[in-house]
Batch of 2 targets.
Target 1
Amino acid sequence: MSLFERLLTLWVALCIVAGIALGQFFPGIFHAIGGMEVAKVNLPVAVLIWLMIIPMLLKIDFGALGASNFFELAVAAAISLFGFSSGAALATVVGVLIEVPVMLSVVKIVNASKPWCERGTAVRRMSKALGHAK
């Protein structure tokens, strides 16, 4: 394991402290960031959630998901930006706890139905059209 990986918990703790300190010293900037919303969805939180989920979508390793620190980073960022009692921090926690299992279930269903889908007539027609005879 690299030095970064061995000290990952320390890096997360330092980022939480830095986020809280920056929020105390520059509250105007963090209030402006907190006010960036579209359709009542906070854009920084949405970006953090997608940054957390994209690596899982690219290569799903069910064994490594429990060791992922992206969730903690997203929660730390939401708390440092919006405070402990904010709806954004709550949405970050609850949204991810619902979204990740649902997304993993969809991946499992799609992977399980792959042979069934590949037997379909549309796939055979496309295969013939591309010159891949079966």
Note: DSSP finds seven helices and two strands in the chain.
Target 2
Amino acid sequence: MEPEVISVGNALYLYYRTDHSIAVATNSSDDGTNWTDMTTVLTPSPSGWDSGEVIAPSVVIVNSTYYLFYEANDSSTGRRAIGVAISSSPTGSFTKCSYFMKQKPWRMPVPTIPVFRTFSNNVCLSALKLETREGNKRA
């Protein structure tokens, strides 16, 4: 669930949606209190299934690979999907790989905000929050 925090060595990394709910960015901290802006790690594609927004990050680490799962939408159709991008570093760059759970636009309730965890080195969808939406506003 947003925001997402992972621990890597002695550092914490916070993943969150940026202003205007368009992209995913990260901050880092050594103490959990003082944070440093790092970078935007994921942005919408110029066209296609994740061209409108990329939000709701959930990050897991398996065998030194960082899997960033996220909610996205297609700016031309409004269809929503959950995508995955991978990196060898918690600060990216993340390479988009695929999507799943593509659906029609703004159906209520909307399955969004994927929460992924690792169990025995397998990446598993551990929760999928249902949201009620009205137009483009999150309830």
Note: Residues 48 and 74 are 6 Å apart (CA to CA).
